[in-house]
């Protein structure tokens, strides 16, 4: 136990020393308005550099990602159907699909799937 504590202390000390050295040696960059503005051949930009981000689009993308991962989890279950107990397997699939449908209903009920708002 003493060896593990000494090793952990040594590792933490080395990490702390490296972090402190990095902060002291690193090139300091000062950000000002000119450096953060977009460069358009020396002229002022005609519009803002950052376009407004659609939160609705982001929410749809996250929902798609969640359901895509769940569908990816269903594919190996279909392949392993031959080597498993049919009763346990069907209960697992039904439970999984019920959770998937409840999540879809919740998102639909909250209005997250309405694109034109």
TrEMBL record:
<dbReference type="GO" id="GO:0008137">
    <property type="term" value="F:NADH dehydrogenase (ubiquinone) activity"/>
</dbReference>
<keyword id="KW-1278">Translocase</keyword>
<keyword id="KW-1133">Transmembrane helix</keyword>
<dbReference type="Pfam" id="PF00507">
    <property type="entry name" value="Oxidored_q4"/>
</dbReference>
<keyword id="KW-0813">Transport</keyword>
<keyword id="KW-0830">Ubiquinone</keyword>
<feature type="transmembrane region" description="Helical">
    <location>
        <begin position="55"/>
        <end position="79"/>
    </location>
</feature>
<keyword id="KW-0812">Transmembrane</keyword>
<keyword id="KW-0472">Membrane</keyword>
<keyword id="KW-0249">Electron transport</keyword>
<dbReference type="GO" id="GO:0030964">
    <property type="term" value="C:NADH dehydrogenase complex"/>
</dbReference>
<dbReference type="InterPro" id="IPR038430">
    <property type="entry name" value="NDAH_ubi_oxred_su3_sf"/>
</dbReference>
<comment type="similarity">
    <text>Belongs to the complex I subunit 3 family.</text>
</comment>
<keyword id="KW-0496">Mitochondrion</keyword>
<protein>
    <recommendedName>
        <fullName>NADH-ubiquinone oxidoreductase chain 3</fullName>
        <ecNumber>7.1.1.2</ecNumber>
    </recommendedName>
</protein>
<comment type="function">
    <text>Core subunit of the mitochondrial membrane respiratory chain NADH dehydrogenase (Complex I) which catalyzes electron transfer from NADH through the respiratory chain, using ubiquinone as an electron acceptor. Essential for the catalytic activity of complex I.</text>
</comment>
<dbReference type="GO" id="GO:0031966">
    <property type="term" value="C:mitochondrial membrane"/>
</dbReference>
<dbReference type="InterPro" id="IPR000440">
    <property type="entry name" value="NADH_UbQ/plastoQ_OxRdtase_su3"/>
</dbReference>
<keyword id="KW-0679">Respiratory chain</keyword>
<feature type="transmembrane region" description="Helical">
    <location>
        <begin position="86"/>
        <end position="105"/>
    </location>
</feature>
<keyword id="KW-0520">NAD</keyword>
């Amino acid at each position: 136990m003493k060896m593990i504590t000494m090793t952990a202390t040594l590792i933490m000390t080395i990490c702390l020393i490296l972090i402190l050295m990095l902060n002291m040696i690193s090139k300091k960059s000062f950000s000002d308005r000119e450096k953060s503005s977009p460069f358009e051949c020396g002229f002022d930009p005609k519009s803002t550099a950052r376009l407004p981000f659609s939160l609705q689009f982001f929410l749809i993308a996250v929902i798609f990602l969640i359901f895509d991962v769940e569908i990816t989890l269903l594919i190996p279950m279909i392949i392993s159907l031959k080597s498993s107990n049919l009763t346990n397997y069907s209960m697992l699939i039904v439970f999984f699909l019920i959770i998937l449908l409840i999540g879809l209903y919740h998102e639909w009920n909250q209005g997250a799937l309405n694109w034109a708002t």
